[in-house]
C-alpha cells in the first residue's frame, strides 16, 4: 500500500512499517505502527512527513485513536511530528526515556500527556506489551530502545541502519554498507556503548529487528550485523554527514 513516496506494510503480528524514501539522505525514514487497543506510533518522522504518515496510518486505523507516540531519542526524524500527532489524537501520550522527557520535553515546554520510562519498565497496549531499555550514547545520551514482547521485536532506532531504498523485509547481508554509512555520517562517538548494548540485546532472544532506516530483518540476518559491530570500527573519525570536518589520526 503506497501513498506518494510513503508506503505501509504489515511486517509481523500487527506491526506495520510506514516508510518514506528520502533521496537527499539516501535512506528510508521508517515509522512503526502497532495496531492494538491502544495503538502506538514508534517515531513520527520529520515535521513535514506528518501528512503522509498520518494518511498511511489511516489505511489501518483512525489516527485520532493513537494512544501513544514513542520517541527513542530527541531528534527531528524521531519526534519532529509529535505536536501534530498529539493535537489530532486527544488521548495520545508522548512516551520517551526518562531523560528525554525530563530534559527535552519539559525544556521545550511539553508537560501535559508526557511519560518518561526507565530501563525495565513496561507498557501494555492490549495484546502487545512493550519493554523499555535505556541505551545511553547509542547515539544520544537520552537514547532508548523498545522490545515488543509478543512478537519478540526490537525497535533499535538508528542502530542496524541500512542505506538505500530497502523493502519492508531484508534478507541480504547489508552489514558492510551499515558500517560504511556510520563512518561517513559520524553518529556514534565511540564503539563501546554500542557494543555494550549489543551484548544486552543478544540475551533477549529476539526474533525481529525493525530499524528506523532500512528494512526489518529476522534473527539469522541480525547476527551478521552484530558480528560487524563487534569486529569493525564505526565510530566518529572526523566525518559528519558525509563531510570531513577534522582529520583524526587512528589511535
Ligand atoms: Fe537519530
Ligand atoms: Fe533516525
Give a verbal description of the structure.
- The protein is of the alpha+beta class and 251 residues long.
- Helix content is 26%, strand content 26%.
- The chain has seven helices and 16 strands.
- Strands 1-2-3-4-5-6-7-8 form an eight-stranded mixed beta sheet. Strands 9-10-11-12-13-14 form a six-stranded mixed beta sheet. A two-stranded antiparallel ribbon has the order 15-16.
- A hairpin with a 4-residue loop joins strand 9 (122-124) and strand 10.
- Helix 5 (175-185) crosses helix 7 (219-231).
- The protein is globular, with a radius of gyration of 17 Å.
- The model has no long low-confidence stretch (mean pLDDT 96).
List the helices and strands and how they pair.
Layout: E1 2-3, E2 6-12, E3 15-22, E4 27-34, E5 40-42, H1 50-58, E6 68-70, H2 76-79, H3 82-88, E7 93-97, H4 98-107, E8 114-117, E9 122-124, E10 129-134, E11 144-148, E12 153-155, H5 175-185, H6 192-202, E13 208-209, E14 217-218, H7 219-231, E15 239-240, E16 243-244
Parallel strand pairs: 5-6, 6-7, 7-8, 12-13
Antiparallel strand pairs: 1-2, 2-3, 3-4, 4-5, 9-10, 10-11, 11-12, 13-14, 15-16
Amino acid at each position: 500500500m503506497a501513498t506518494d513516496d510513503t508506503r505501509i506494510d504489515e511486517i509481523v503480528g500487527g506491526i506495520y512499517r510506514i516508510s518514506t524514501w528520502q533521496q537527499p539522505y539516501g535512506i528510508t525514514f521508517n515509522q512503526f505502527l502497532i495496531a492494538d487497543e491502544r495503538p502506538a506510533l514508534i517515531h513520527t518522522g520529520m515535521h513535514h512527513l506528518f501528512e503522509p504518515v498520518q494518511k498511511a496510518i489511516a489505511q489501518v486505523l483512525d489516527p485520532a485513536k493513537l494512544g501513544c507516540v514513542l520517541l527513542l531519542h530527541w531528534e527531528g526524524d524521531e519526534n519532529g511530528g509529535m505536536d501534530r500527532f498529539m493535537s489530532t489524537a486527544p488521548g495520545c501520550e508522548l512516551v520517551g526515556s526518562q531523560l528525554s522527557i525530563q530534559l527535552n520535553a519539559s525544556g521545550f515546554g511539553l508537560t501535559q500527556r508526557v511519560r518518561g520510562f526507565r530501563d525495565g519498565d513496561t507498557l501494555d497496549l492490549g495484546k502487545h506489551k512493550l519493554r523499555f531499555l535505556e541505551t545511553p550514547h547509542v547515539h544520544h545520551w537520552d537514547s532508548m530502545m523498545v522490545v515488543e514482547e509478543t512478537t519478540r521485536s526490537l525497535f533499535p532506532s538508528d542502530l542496524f541502519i541500512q542505506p538505500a531504498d530497502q523493502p519492508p523485509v531484508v534478507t541480504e547481508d547489508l552489514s558492510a554498507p551499515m558500517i560504511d554509512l556510520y563512518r561517513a555520517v559520524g553518529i556514534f562517538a565511540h564503539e563501546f556503548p554500542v557494543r555494550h548494548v549489543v551484548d544486552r540485546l543478544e540475551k533477549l532472544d529476539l526474533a525481529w529487528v525493525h530499524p528506523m532506516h532500512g528494512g526489518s530483518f529476522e534473527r539469522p540476518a541480525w547476527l551478521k550485523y552484530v558480528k560487524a559491530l563487534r569486529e569493525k570500527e564505526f565510530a566518529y573519525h572526523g566525518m559528519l554527514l558525509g563531510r570531513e570536518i577534522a582529520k583524526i589520526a587512528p589511535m
